[in-house]
User: Fold Acyl-coenzyme A thioesterase THEM4 from Streptomyces doudnae.
Amino acid sequence: MSRTSAALEPPADAVRPVRHPDAPAPGELLGAHYEHCFGCGGGQPHGLRLEARAGEGVTLTAEFTVRPAHQGAPGLAHGGVLATALDETLGSLNWLLRKIAVTGRLETDFVRPVPVDTVLHLTAEVTAVAGRKIWSTATGRIGGPEGPVAVRADALFIEVKVEHFIDNGRPEEIRAAMNDPDQSRRARAFEVNP
Ligand SMILES: CCCCCCCCCC(=O)SCCNC(=O)CCNC(=O)[C@H](O)C(C)(C)COP(=O)(O)OP(=O)(O)OC[C@H]1O[C@@H](n2cnc3c(N)ncnc32)[C@H](O)[C@@H]1OP(=O)(O)O
Assistant:
């Protein structure tokens, strides 16, 4: 299978990622970073409700159960939904670095069809960092954490300042997120150091 594009090959001067000292302990559930996130929030009726758990180093595991609302072909997960699960999993890794970053590029291989009711078992890790760029990779398996690979992705995240969201997001949601009395939830909505 073809490997990814040149933009997803870290340069020679890229460095190994460093887990932030305040990152959640290995095994700890990350929880939703924002209630209305389609990938992980509980406030989206048809959202993925993906659950990610910190791993060792800058790695994590995640699970997503394909529901009927996630179909593309009859009885099968939509490819865009699977890409969303990969994007959410990869995006969650940045919480272990305590960096605010958005997806710049996401390249996905769809290896096997994923039926409704299947649990997709994901693993992900940051592979390299250079300046504002963060390279990461994820794999999704079915039939169990050691089952056959169904999807995989490589990605480049770009670190941004919190103003990225404040300046570009719809004011209504930005205001609501910033006025959340819970400081930790307020911070996590934008993945900012609390
Ligand atoms: C907040 C919490 C999130 C928690 C998890 C959520 C998981 C889901 C994650 C997402 O889905 S985030 C939403 C989807 N992504 C976006 O909406 C991003 C939209 N794009 C942008 O806002 C800008 O294009 C971006 C911030 C990514 C880059 O713009 P900048 O003006 O800041 O950067 P610039 O264009 O100067 O590029 C900086 C470097 O990155 C490189 N780069 C930027 N975009 C790239 C790209 N798409 N592909 C490859 N390289 C890219 C660029 O070539 C350059 O490399 P060099 O430094 O080596 O010159």
Observations:
- The radius of gyration is 16 Å.
- Residues 7, 33, 39, 87-88, 91-92, 100, 102-105, 132-133, 156, 158, 160, 190-191 surround decanoyl-CoA (CB under 6 Å).
